[in-house]
Fold:
Amino acid sequence: MRRRQTRAPIFLAASLLLASPAARSEESSASEMRVGKGETRTGDVVLLGRQFFLEGELDGSLVLVGGGHATVSGRIRRDLILLGSDATVQRGARIDGDVLSVGGSLAFEENPPAVSSDGPGAKSSPQVGGRVRTVSALEAAVATELQTSPAASLAEWPFLLSFRLALLFAWLIVAFGLLLAAPRALGAAAAGVPGRGAFLGVFGATAVLTAGFAGALALSLFPSRLALAAGAALLAVLVAAKAWGLAAVFLALGRRLNAAAPRGSALFGDPAAAALGLLALGAASLVPLAGPLLWGAASLVGIGVSFAAAASRSPRVALAPS
Structure:
């Protein structure tokens, strides 16, 4: 059985328990990882925010997460996976498996990938045995979600504004769908938001950090494909929690805005409240500098709302009277 080695500094505490003293010393002292010419490293390599230089051979997959950079001039026997990281594939390099790049950059010094018939977004390269996939649409959505203010880049202002408005409209559809599917549960969640924003924001931030550490730990301990599946599952949970929680935040904010609306008017009721809350928060998110911070804080509060609601619905044990 191959022994997996990881060099992600975020797992130094876990390494103290799982690795030998010599391995721990090597992990803590190295600021980069290098496989020299003529050398062969077995097993998958997972790096978090680190540099990797491959001149020899890696008998496994290479996974870079969070700002890492790889310079590949040797051979990777399996896959190259870039999650928010960059890689340069030099002349003479070879990757036997697939290449996946999400949120980073991928450069070939020669033989740049050509469009392939293997599904949308797939490309092929003579230096890659499998397919080269870059998730450009997801990158654009993530970048726009993080940079919520289109005024931050005047050159791309029309595109970013229209894309942001489309995202806000999608959020409105999600909020209406959840309100239609579970009006009582969403209303109860929204009722618990006022006066608890700070607590719910901390709760949401804790949930996000916990999911991030769990995903990174999975990348360190499990095979790359299984770890990515676990990371995708954690991401799906966070996305679902954010969707539910933000809908509750929209509803809670809108209820305050239409509190004085007379019964029977167009602004009365929860659907109108959800739309008003989204309109107010969405308009604020377009403000430079403060807008992204406000939307990020609302997202954390929303995630906190979802997990707090899930915890409150957990079964309680009641002792029967003797």
Notes: Residues 9 and 48 are 7 Å apart (CA to CA). The first strand starts at residue 32 and ends at 35.
